[in-house]
Amino acid sequence: MNLASKRAVFQKIYFPFAYALFKLKASPNVLTFLSLILGTASALAYYYEFLLTAFFLLLISGLFDLVDGEVARLSGKTTKFGAVFDWVVDKWVDGLVLGIVGYYYASPTWATFAVTLSMLHSFIKPVAYAEIGFAERIKGRIFDPLEGKGFFGRPETHVTLLFFTLLEKIKVEGALELGIKLIVIFTSLSLIHRLYYLYHTYGRVKDE
User: Fold this and answer.
1) How far apart are CA 137 and CA 98, in angstroms?
2) In whole angstroms, how far apart are CA 84 and each of 3, 17, 65, 109, 189?
3) pTM attached to this predicted model
4) How many angstroms from the chain centroid is the CA of residue 182?
5) Of the ranges 7-16, 67-76, 128-137, which is most confident?
6) Which residues does the annotation mark as catalytic?
7) By the 8 A CB rule, do 110 and 102 touch?
8) Looking at the domain covering 3-202, what would its CATH class be?
């Protein structure tokens, strides 16, 4: 699927919101913090089975995660702390939501796989930065060796969760359980795709 490769298309949708926040002089780090609070609240809503609340909280959390970087670039406030803070918040929200949904709607085993594979799929990128380097960095955005590689990352995970949350809400039995299982399967395959690409491209490159 690789929705990240369609960034320019989706940017046209959420950019007006980002621009409005920029004009309101919103702090990028505050927006990231709001993403953290809303994502955490979404996980708690899943725990208490307030599925529609969880749906909207996760959706809005994801929106703030999209626009914080845009606001930072528009305002010239991109910082190394902001980049790290954004990354940490993403992983916190992903781990908490996947862990709770996986544990309570599927099983502890599926929850463990969902969280572990999500983290591996994400953290392979900074490892690639460190070991291989990256092509360029433009206004805080890194163009890395894995750019466009893999087909099921954070955006696809959130879309899948949101879709199956709605199905669970309208009483489709086992919908979120199936959603978690699909996330595990597709994240696994996407991780293998990334590893294969790295091996095929850099497998014979000597480490200095």
Assistant:
1) 30
2) 22, 23, 13, 30, 27
3) 0.91
4) 16
5) 67-76
6) 90
7) yes
8) mainly alpha
